[in-house]
Design goal:
Elements: H1 2-19, E1 25-28, H2 30-34, H3 38-75, H4 81-135, E2 139-142, H5 157-164
Parallel strand pairs: 1-2
Helix pairs in contact: 3-4, 4-5
Biased composition (Low complexity): 96-105
Organism: Cloacibacterium rupense
Signal peptide: 1-22
Amino acid sequence: MKKISILFAAVVMFMSFGVAKAQKIATVDVDAILNIMPEKIKADEQLKAFSTAKQAELEKAATAFQTEVQKYQEGAAKLTPQQREAKEAELGKTSQQLQQMQQAAQKDLAEKSDAAYAPIDKRINDAITRAAKANGYDFIFDSATRGLIYKAGPDATPAVKKELGL
């Protein structure tokens, strides 16, 4: 029985050496890298211009609608009930069209944003992978996320910047 206990203890010690292999862990500040990438800065500017143009278009349509509503409210007393009903139906239809325009603008902006940022995300993820392999890191955490509790390991941000040529 004593020999089995000793053998068991030896096997456990042997197995624990394999498990206790030190893993290299690093952090990277993805936001800091993204904020200096020229292609992200350009994409941000293009998306801002697109958003501003869509907003101006929506504001123009909303102003025209408000003017139409105001004209209706001022002249509603002079209209027959059938005319009032027809005008209210027309205004309701215009209101729905405005809502549809706003939803379409939000969808267009989201699609344009996804299309603009997808290659940037791929480029930074590829650079992180290359930096991890080049420096022998087993894990790299984004230092800006809340999931990271303790940060004492090496910072991979400079290595990723080097891979991106920044």
